[in-house]
Structures are given as C-alpha cells and as structure tokens.
Amino acid sequence: MKAIGILLAIALTSGFLVVSAVNLPGVPVDFNLDDHILSAIADDIAERLAREYINFLKTGVETPEFLKLTNQLAKSHSEKDIFTRNMPDLEPRDSFFVCVACRSVTRVLIRTIRDEDGELHDENSSVLMKEFAMDVCRRLNLQTEEVCEGLIDSNLPSVEYIMRNSESDSQSFCSLFMEFNFCNTGSNQDYNWTLTIDNTGEVSPGPKSDTPTFQDSDIRICQFSDIHHDPYYTPGSLATCAEPMCCQRNKETAEGTSDAAGYWGDYRDCDLPWHAFESALDNAVANSKCDFIYQTGDIVDHMVWATSVEKNTMVLTKVSERLNAAFGDVPVYPCIGNHEPHPLNLFSPEGVPDEISTKWLYEHLYNDWSKWLPAETKETILKGGYYTVVPRKGFRIIALNSNDCYTDNFWLYHSGTDKIPQLQWFHDTLLEAEKNGEYVHVLTHIPSGDGTCWSVWAREFNRCVTRFKSTISGMFTGHSHKDELFVYYSEDEGHPTAVAWNGGAVTTYSNKNPNYREYAVNPETYTVTNHWTWIYNLTAANLKPDEQPEWFLEYEFIKEFTEDLSPAGISKLLDEFAENPELMRKYWRYRVTSADPQVNGGCDRNCLARSLCRAAVTINSQRGRCEELREKLFASLDNEESTSSGSTEATTPGPSTPSDDDNDGGGSSTLGLLSVSSLLAIVLSIRLAL
C-alpha cells in the first residue's frame, strides 16, 4: 500500500512522467512512468474497490472509503467513449478507468462466485448478480439506466457461465481484454499456442511482386461492408443523445434544430436508414459491374443494449433478401461480423448450454446464405460460421469467422485453445488449394492488425498468409469503417506477402460518408488490379431529402496512387506516403471517405502517422515496419514545415477536430501535457480520497 504511494512520488519527483516513443494501438498510454508502476497503481485501486464491494455485498454497509472511491471513479471517465470506441483507442483517463473497473469487477465476480461461501456462489444467484452489476453501473456512472440494464440482461448468463467454468483470473482476463496497454501484465500459456504449419510446399523467396496490371476485361467484384441497418432510424430525431447510438427518438424536440438526424443518414453516432441502403444497391446495379458480391459482415446496428434474436434475425434476413433482389443471379459471399449475434460480440464454443450458445445464429445464417452457397458449406457454418466454396475452376473463396480473435468476445476468456480449430481448418484448406493449383480469396470481418484482435491469433493467421502467399491472391476485410488497405509481411525477412483490402462501410457511423467498393480482379490469377470507391456526400444529400443522393466515384486507385497492386508494389507505396506528405494526406482523405467533419477538422502529423502505421501493421505486437515509416514520415513533415510556411495549416487540426477513433493500432502520437495531467489528476484524486 505505502509502496504504491512511494512509487508514484518517485515517478513524479524524478520527472519520469513523459511520453514514451513506444507505439501502441490507438491513443498511446505508454509512459516512461513504467508500465509496471502504472499497472500497480491501477491494481491497488482495483483491489481496494473489490474489497469494499465484497464487504458491501456481505453487509449492505457503504463505508466512507467505498463512497469516496466510487465517487472519484465516477468522475474520472467520459460517459460515451468507453462504449463507442475500441479499447486501444481510448484516451488515457478512460483507459486507466477501464483497467481499474475491469480488474475490480472481475475480482468481485470470481471471488463471490467461485468461493464456496461467496455471495454469488449459489447457482440461483442471478438476481443478486444483476443487482451488483446495475449498482456498479450507477455508482461508476457508466451509461444510462436503459443501456446498462439491456447490456447486463443480455450478457449476464454467458458471463456467469464463463466465470463458473473457467480458471481465468482478473489479471489474465483484463490483460487480454486490454492487450495493448499498461493493463496487460503478462501472458497465460493457455493463450500462447502455435499452429502446425506444413513446410513441404515450395514457398518462393523474397517479396510477392507478380500482380498483373489492370485490364478492362478483368472480373468485377463489389464489396458491401458494415451495413449496420437501423430499423428504428427516424429522420428528424435526436442525433446527439447520451446513448451509444442515436437518431431514433425525441423527434418532437429535435426536428428543425441542428441536433436533428438527416433524412439520408447522419455523421454523428447513427446507423443507416433503409432507404439509404437501397440507394447504395440501386447505384451499384446502375453504375457498377458486379460479377460477385462480397459482404464482409456487420449487418446489425450499434444499438448494442437492445439486441435480440428476433430483431437480429429480422434485420439479417431483410438485408439478405434485398441483396438477392438487387443482384439476382449474381452470387453473394458473406462472412460474419461481430454485431450479428445476440448478445453482441459473443460467439460461443461448441458444447455449451443451448440458452447461451451461438448455434441459433449459425443455423439462421445458413438458411439465409443457402440461396448462394452449396450444401457442403453447411457443416462448417453450423460448427463455427465459416466456410469455403469454389465458384470457378481454379478459384476458391474462404470466409472466416474472425470473431475468434475479437477481445470483446467474452468466450475468448473461457478457453484460449478452442480458437485453434478454425485456424487449423484455414491452414488445411489453403494446403488443399495449393495442391489443387487454386487461387484463394480470403474474406474476414476483423482485420488481423486491428487493436481488438488478439495478437496470438493474428500471429498464427499471419504465419498461414506467409506460408501460402503464392496461393492467396486477395484478402477482403471490414470492421474499421475505413476505406483502407493493410500490407502483410513475413515475420523473419519482413518481405511483403499479401494485401488486405478494407471496404469501408455503407453505414455513416461515425463521421463518414456511405460507401461501397468495386474491384477489378485478373481472371487467371484472381489478384486485385484496381478498385473504385463510390460515395455520396451526406451534407449535400440531406439538403435535398426528397431527391436521391448523388452517388459519385470518389476515386480510382490506379489513377490516384499506383498501377502496381502487388504486395511489393503497395509496400513501396507506403514508403511513398512517408516521403510525400501530400500523397499521404490524399490517402487519409479517401480513408475517411472525404467526410465533411473529418476534412474540416484536418489530420495533423500524429493522425497521419496513425493512418500510415495502420496500413503496415497486421500483428499489433510486431511494429517494426510501422516505426520505420513513422520516422520517415516525421522527417518529411519536418522538412516540409521548414521549407513551406503554408504547410502547417494542412497538418494542424482545427479547433473542432473529430477523434479518429478508427481501430488504428497506428503510429505513436505524442501524448499532450493535458492528457498527462488529466491522468495524474485521476490517480492522485483517487489516492488522496483514500
């Protein structure tokens, strides 16, 4: 106890609290105040809170220490960001709060559930467990009563089962949940496995650089990602609510004001109205050529506290039927997003009780997808939501359920090893494709370099990509809502091996224009040779609610960047981004779909570095290429600023810069003095309150 105070005092008086140059995903929280010290401070507060809460559960007595501690924590965090931003993208005060809350609440649940004399040990203690969870929500000011109750009601049965049937403790649980910051205190051997990778095939040495150039005769593939249809979207309703998603209620007070939701969607925390989705499909049918359709997950909206089997299945089927109606005989190849299940994000392993199993979702999706997929895909879809199909001789598609890597999927904490089978199947399917002389497209919702993708899963996935780089001819992802790309590198030599193309999102959530992509694919090698991104400007569309939005071609990749879309060519492009800040700014603008709030706010040097680093990281624990590019970019920006007095306006954000809460995992942006001071104030106020 005294030791923690001494450590903090030493850190303060020694001037240790300065920003580290270490790069972590999203907003960095890594200080020269050693991670172990910061973690120890958080742990001390978490342990105190856990002990006070257990005492409160036993006695019903609120001690002065309990009240002071919970009051201070309730004031220490933002209300909305901890629900709308991914863990790696939280600002320092929120990251510190979530670490404390995670460790404390997990300890209370583990001790009271697993101890024979614990208050929640009884199998019939669900009512008391909910009361505890709601009390935490109220005392720590987590969200509105409605949001907390909805999330607790849907998640509690699964969380209780995991707590009763796993050996995970608070340190390992929260280390995985917040893997890429100070809250990660170490590894659990059950969560550090390796796949068996075949080494008998011939893997060509060096970078992969053999992509044909674009031809008008190439196959065309259209990608619709992250549709997030909101069946309750109401034009004119309140777009600035306290909940994680808005644009559904309070039309009577919001309509006619600046807080009102637009007809064709809204830049704020709102999802997609049905007529906007139909407009996207109508434009694709009229102006794009689609030989295949890739739908890379997340059809259900962000109303995360009010999911249900009935609502989710209704939306999934409605979107599936509309895609089928729009494109007729054109085959659609979908994969699962993290928003599809109820409860949100939770994908159970096999063998758990039916009432908390995800098999209902897999059964429903197979029924929806069976209009496009052959019967032999049924077995793996029902097993885990993944499949493979051969649309043409010599061409195979593998659709993965990448929620196995998602650290918001609580079933990850039930067991680290039950995520091996799908990846092993992925490897074995690639091996079969190699033997058959097939080229493969890989569809997956969550990019492996995302800040919420478990690094061990990502590492083993990358090993498969490197081993089968000659077989994998295209990778297509979603989830980030960004129009972007990711370059894969071999772990040993650092050679570029593959490129993953991220299709952005049809939804406007958040601060983006609706978009979809059209790809050109060589008919012999099935490599991507070009792509086009279609958008409409949300501001302009909402000025004319009675007219269809004006969809337009935002950009064509080979005309704006490079004709060499091989992994080696795109890796070279990343170097060009680092050497040419104006080219990097162009990439950033397209990455955020030229959305007015983003463009008006601008992108400073750290924002540019995050965007560039995100393109170079596919395993968050391996960041060498990111560091190299970041250093080169900063040198270019320094040179630009020294030679052009007008350049600072282009690299400095305006006063209302929107947060780039984009799962970056990107380059380190230096943490400002205000952020350091805020975090210090939180720590000191909580310590002094005790």
From TrEMBL:
<keyword id="KW-0325">Glycoprotein</keyword>
<feature type="disulfide bond">
    <location>
        <begin position="99"/>
        <end position="183"/>
    </location>
</feature>
<feature type="binding site">
    <location>
        <position position="479"/>
    </location>
    <ligand>
        <name>Zn(2+) 2</name>
    </ligand>
</feature>
<dbReference type="GO" id="GO:0046513">
    <property type="term" value="P:ceramide biosynthetic process"/>
</dbReference>
<dbReference type="Pfam" id="PF00149">
    <property type="entry name" value="Metallophos"/>
</dbReference>
<comment type="similarity">
    <text>Belongs to the acid sphingomyelinase family.</text>
</comment>
<feature type="binding site">
    <location>
        <position position="481"/>
    </location>
    <ligand>
        <name>Zn(2+) 1</name>
    </ligand>
</feature>
<feature type="binding site">
    <location>
        <position position="228"/>
    </location>
    <ligand>
        <name>Zn(2+) 1</name>
    </ligand>
</feature>
<feature type="binding site">
    <location>
        <position position="338"/>
    </location>
    <ligand>
        <name>Zn(2+) 2</name>
    </ligand>
</feature>
<keyword id="KW-0862">Zinc</keyword>
<feature type="domain" description="Saposin B-type">
    <location>
        <begin position="95"/>
        <end position="187"/>
    </location>
</feature>
<dbReference type="InterPro" id="IPR045473">
    <property type="entry name" value="ASM_C"/>
</dbReference>
<dbReference type="Pfam" id="PF19272">
    <property type="entry name" value="ASMase_C"/>
</dbReference>
<keyword id="KW-0732">Signal</keyword>
<dbReference type="GO" id="GO:0005615">
    <property type="term" value="C:extracellular space"/>
</dbReference>
<keyword id="KW-0378">Hydrolase</keyword>
<feature type="signal peptide">
    <location>
        <begin position="1"/>
        <end position="21"/>
    </location>
</feature>
<keyword id="KW-0479">Metal-binding</keyword>
<feature type="disulfide bond">
    <location>
        <begin position="241"/>
        <end position="246"/>
    </location>
</feature>
<dbReference type="InterPro" id="IPR029052">
    <property type="entry name" value="Metallo-depent_PP-like"/>
</dbReference>
<keyword id="KW-0964">Secreted</keyword>
<feature type="region of interest" description="Disordered">
    <location>
        <begin position="637"/>
        <end position="668"/>
    </location>
</feature>
<feature type="disulfide bond">
    <location>
        <begin position="102"/>
        <end position="174"/>
    </location>
</feature>
<feature type="binding site">
    <location>
        <position position="445"/>
    </location>
    <ligand>
        <name>Zn(2+) 2</name>
    </ligand>
</feature>
<feature type="disulfide bond">
    <location>
        <begin position="405"/>
        <end position="453"/>
    </location>
</feature>
<feature type="binding site">
    <location>
        <position position="298"/>
    </location>
    <ligand>
        <name>Zn(2+) 2</name>
    </ligand>
</feature>
<feature type="compositionally biased region" description="Low complexity">
    <location>
        <begin position="642"/>
        <end position="658"/>
    </location>
</feature>
<dbReference type="InterPro" id="IPR011160">
    <property type="entry name" value="Sphingomy_PDE"/>
</dbReference>
<dbReference type="GO" id="GO:0006685">
    <property type="term" value="P:sphingomyelin catabolic process"/>
</dbReference>
<dbReference type="InterPro" id="IPR004843">
    <property type="entry name" value="Calcineurin-like_PHP"/>
</dbReference>
<keyword id="KW-0326">Glycosidase</keyword>
<dbReference type="GO" id="GO:0046872">
    <property type="term" value="F:metal ion binding"/>
</dbReference>
<comment type="function">
    <text>Converts sphingomyelin to ceramide.</text>
</comment>
<dbReference type="GO" id="GO:0005764">
    <property type="term" value="C:lysosome"/>
</dbReference>
<dbReference type="GO" id="GO:0061750">
    <property type="term" value="F:acid sphingomyelin phosphodiesterase activity"/>
</dbReference>
<feature type="binding site">
    <location>
        <position position="226"/>
    </location>
    <ligand>
        <name>Zn(2+) 1</name>
    </ligand>
</feature>
<dbReference type="GO" id="GO:0016798">
    <property type="term" value="F:hydrolase activity, acting on glycosyl bonds"/>
</dbReference>
<feature type="disulfide bond">
    <location>
        <begin position="603"/>
        <end position="607"/>
    </location>
</feature>
<dbReference type="GO" id="GO:0016020">
    <property type="term" value="C:membrane"/>
</dbReference>
<feature type="binding site">
    <location>
        <position position="298"/>
    </location>
    <ligand>
        <name>Zn(2+) 1</name>
    </ligand>
</feature>
<feature type="disulfide bond">
    <location>
        <begin position="247"/>
        <end position="270"/>
    </location>
</feature>
<dbReference type="InterPro" id="IPR008139">
    <property type="entry name" value="SaposinB_dom"/>
</dbReference>
